């Protein structure tokens, strides 16, 4: 499972600011903020409500020509792709979902849940995560 956030180059917040914004938004998610966007690739540890979580984190340039005209119009000049990947662990997916939503909001991004459009705009991303949170929590021990 992956969440893709399309952002403008240069718009990624400092990792410590991202971690702080997650807490300020009221989520019980703590991410490891001791990394640099331009050097990190791989699993980013986190805790959700005190339990181990986290996600794989990747950042790359994206060629918008791979998308439809409508999708290109929605993304405008957001040519940097941040991908948060999880596998079968729903607690990890929760951390990815929340972190993606807050990052999208902070960086004026467009979020593709599951890696596919339709896009969730920055203005609605945190509310999307809040609405999804109870349903995903029910799947933790399923």
Question: What does it look like?
Answer:
The protein has 142 residues and is of the alpha+beta class. It contains 4 helices and 7 strands, in the order βαβββαβαββα. It has helices at 15-24, 69-75, 90-106, 122-137, and strands at 2-7, 29-31, 42-48, 51-61, 80-85, 110-113, 120-121. The chain has a 7-stranded antiparallel β-sheet. A hairpin with a 2-residue loop joins strand 3 and strand 4 (51-61). Helix 1 (15-24) crosses helix 3 and helix 3 (90-106) runs antiparallel to helix 4 (122-137). The protein is globular, with a radius of gyration of 14 Å. The relative contact order is 0.23.
Summarize the topology.
Elements lengths: L1 E6 L7 H10 L4 E3 L10 E7 L2 E11 L7 H7 L4 E6 L4 H17 L3 E4 L6 E2 H16 L5
Antiparallel strand pairs: 1-5, 1-6, 2-3, 3-4, 4-5, 6-7
Calculate the mean pLDDT score and round it: 95
Major pleated sheet: 7 strands, antiparallel
The rounded distance between the terminal residues' Cα atoms is: 17 Å
Instruction: Find the structural class using helix and strand composition.
Output: alpha+beta
- Tally the beta strands: 7
Radius of gyration: 14 Å
């Amino acid at each position: 499972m992956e969440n893709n956030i399309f952002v403008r180059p240069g718009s990624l917040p400092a990792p410590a600011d991202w971690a702080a914004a997650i807490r300020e938004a009221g989520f019980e998610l703590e991410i490891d903020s001791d990394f640099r966007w331009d050097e990190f690739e791989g699993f980013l540890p986190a805790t959700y409500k005190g339990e181990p979580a986290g996600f794989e984190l990747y950042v790359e340039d994206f060629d918008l020509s791979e998308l439809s005209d409508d999708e290109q119009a929605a993304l405008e000049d957001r040519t940097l792709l941040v991908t948060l990947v999880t596998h079968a662990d729903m607690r990890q997916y929760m951390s990815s979902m929340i972190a993606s939503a807050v990052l999208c909001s902070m960086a004026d991004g467009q979020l593709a849940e599951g890696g596919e459009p339709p896009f969730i705009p920055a203005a609605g991303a945190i509310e999307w995560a809040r609405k999804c949170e109870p349903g995903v929590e029910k799947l933790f021990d399923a």
